[in-house]
Design goal:
Helix content: 25-40%
Number of strands: 5
CATH topology: Ribosomal Protein S5, domain 2
Strand order of the largest sheet: 1-4-5-3-2
Radius of gyration: 14 Å
CATH architecture: 2-Layer Sandwich
Order of helices and strands: EHEEEHEH
Oligomer: single chain
Strand content: 15-25%
Structural class: alpha/beta
Number of domains: 1
Number of helices: 3
CATH class: Alpha Beta
Largest sheet: 5 strands, mixed
Length: 124
C-alpha cells in the first residue's frame, strides 16, 4: 500500500507519540512510530521532525530537517506504512553522506514498524 507523506497537524498525535507503538534507531537517526487507530480511515503517513538545539544553530538544524525529509521521501513507498512518524537526528546527520543517511532512515523506520508489529502480535 502506498502511503503519501503529510505533516502531523494535531496536538493529540504529538502527545500520543510520547508513548509510541514502536521505536527504531540507526546511526544518528531515531524514529517513533504510532499506528493509525483501529477502524480509522487514515491511509497515509504523517511525519514530524525533531532536531533539538543541542545539535547546533538554526541553520544546522534546518539543514538536518531538510536532509531527513529528502531521505524519507527517497524510501520506497512500500516501506512507509500509514501512521504517524516522529523522526529525530543528532549532529552526525549533518555530515553523513546522503546515501548513508537514507540507509539509516530506512533502517530506523523498519525497526520502529517491526517493534510495533511485535507488540501487536503479543497483544499489547
Amino acid at each position: 500500500m502506498t502511503a503519501p507523506l503529510g505533516p502531523i497537524r494535531h496536538r493529540q498525535t504529538f502527545s500520543q507519540l510520547r508513548r509510541p507503538n514502536g521505536r527504531g534507531a540507526s546511526g544518528p537517526v531515531d524514529v517513533r512510530y504510532l499506528r493509525p487507530p483501529p477502524g480509522g480511515d487514515q491511509d497515509r503517513a504523517t511525519v514530524a521532525f525533531n532536531v533539538g538545539r543541542r545539535v547546533g544553530g538554526a541553520v544546522t538544524r534546518n539543514r538536518i530537517r531538510r536532509r531527513l525529509r529528502a531521505a524519507l521521501s527517497a524510501l520506497p513507498p512500500s516501506e512507509i506504512r500509514p501512521g504517524a512518524y516522529l523522526v529525530g537526528a543528532g549532529l552526525d546527520a549533518a555530515s553523513l553522506p546522503y546515501s548513508t543517511l537514507v540507509g539509516c532512515v530506512g533502517d530506523a523506520v523498519a525497526g520502529a514498524v517491526a517493534v510495533a508489529d511485535a507488540r501487536t502480535a503479543r497483544g499489547r
